[in-house]
TrEMBL record:
Homodimer. This is 4-hydroxythreonine-4-phosphate dehydrogenase. Signal peptide: none annotated. Transmembrane segments: none annotated. It is found in: Cytoplasm. A divalent metal cation binds at residues 167, 212, 267. GO terms for biological process: pyridoxal phosphate biosynthetic process; pyridoxine biosynthetic process. It comes from Parahaliea aestuarii.
Amino acid sequence: MPTPIPTIAITTGEPAGIGPDITLMAAMRAWDAELVAIGDIDMLRERARLLNLPVSLTPYQPGPQARPHTPGHLSVLHTSVSATVIPGQLNPANAHYVLKTLDLAIEGCRTGSFQAMVTAPVQKSVINDAGIPFSGHTEYLAEKTGTEHVVMMLATDKLRVALATTHLPLKDVPAAITRESLERTLRILHAELTGKFGITRPKITVLGLNPHAGEGGHLGREEIEIITPLLEKLKNEGMQLAGPLPADTAFNPEQLANSDAYLAMYHDQGLPVLKFSRFGEAVNITLGLPIVRVSVDHGTALGLAGEGSAKAGSLITTIDLAGSIATCAPNFVPAGNA
Ligand SMILES: NC(=O)C1=CN([C@@H]2O[C@H](COP(=O)(O)OP(=O)(O)OC[C@H]3O[C@@H](n4cnc5c(N)ncnc54)[C@H](O)[C@@H]3O)[C@@H](O)[C@H]2O)C=CC1
Ligand SMILES: NCC(=O)COP(=O)(O)O
């Protein structure tokens, strides 16, 4: 029996940004998966017209089996915007719409209608401007699926960078680096590198928090008091861990060759390295969730919306990865939240 192909939901993101554009661009390709865009079908039709993309949009009709995507067609699970969309112009009136697209995707993944969700970028600020506290998809998905601990990881074919903390003001980072939280992060990262990426004995390089990994305690004590004792414990269990290494020198060729993933202590410690190496071609995957969620590596690029100059490379890679995880590891349950 051939393996059934997955149905992948694509949330089209902030409607004034490039999410609709890149979704329509991805729809111009053939896929060995059924793609279902979630968003306002009239807004998507208008964007296709603006971009001169010959995509025919039809309301999503669930079938008994997923059908491979054919270029130039797109099924849309429709939900209406509240206010007319002008590309490039944010409107807090559409914040609830953006969250509704996420809720529909989560529900579809949980009920089995979708095997994965792929997210186009949202504008975190405009959701907050609408009076809804929102840090990011990562935290929203954790809350909505009742998952206590998740891990953000960005990946290219050469480098994976996971984060010990996500969207936090820098001043709150040290307090969030606790032994318990770091242990859960490392267990989830380790389990998912094996379960979703097929790496049998993953090698993880852990960065320090402070400059020079604390310089023997003279530039901070988190390495001595929290990170090192935890790494020793997990190494004694058989995990292959290096660190804590100074972040400024840890991405050297030898260490890169010896690492399946890096764990950075905070967002802007690890992600600039990855984005400098391959911005626009990486993916962002949320580890630890009971559903498959993969996202693009970039934001809403408001200035490019409706212009035709946004690149769909990261979304293409993201759909590919979501499809292969949904096909190869459909029942993978991550450790660390047990
Ligand atoms: N997964 C998500 O939902 C993400 C959302 N964001 C949100 O996006 C908003 C804007 O963030 P920024 O820091 O300005 O980052 P951004 O990625 O939107 O833009 C940074 C630069 O890259 C360019 N760029 C981005 N994506 C591109 C693409 N596909 N093709 C061509 N050029 C592209 C932009 O034009 C801009 O020059 C923020 O609200 C942020 O929170 C940022 C990252 C991820
Ligand atoms: N820099 C990555 C990012 O901000 C994406 O966050 P999320 O919306 O995927 O949680």
